[in-house]
Design goal:
Elements: H1 4-12, H2 15-24, E1 29-30, H3 31-36, H4 42-54, E2 58-63, E3 66-71, H5 73-87, H6 90-112
Antiparallel strand pairs: 1-3, 2-3
Helix pairs in contact: 1-4, 1-5
Length: 113
């Protein structure tokens, strides 16, 4: 059995699946609408959606005879974030420094205004 991070990164490995995730960032789409955006066959897109679903990156719900897909953005963010934190712990420090600079810049801007 593979671990969940492996499933996520395997799902992200294919450009069609990454494009599907990007297409879902603005909201729910029907399977047919997703398939219409690609030159690949419907069954091929269905398999890609299955990989994304099995990795927990998308959710699906039925509406009559349609299947609607949504991005599970928390799962994606947590999986990639956990990996980056383990591999590049300095990224956590850099984010905190950037946030601190952003807060100081905002305070300075308010003081000037």
């Amino acid at each position: 059995m593979t671990d969940s991070a492996t499933d996520v990164f395997e799902a992200l490995a294919h450009p069609t699946r990454r494009q599907i995730l990007q297409d879902l960032k603005d909201g729910e789409l029907a399977a047919g609408a997703i398939a219409a955006r690609f030159s690949a066959s419907g069954p091929t897109i269905s398999r890609h959606l299955g990989v994304l679903r099995n990795a927990g990156l998308v959710t699906e719900r039925r509406d009559a005879n349609r299947i609607l897909y949504s991005l599970a953005s928390d799962r994606l963010a947590l999986s990639v974030g956990d990996f980056l934190s383990a591999v590049c712990p300095e990224q956590i420090v850099l984010r905190q420094v950037r946030k601190g600079r952003g807060a100081k810049a905002t305070e300075a801007g308010e003081a000037i205004a």
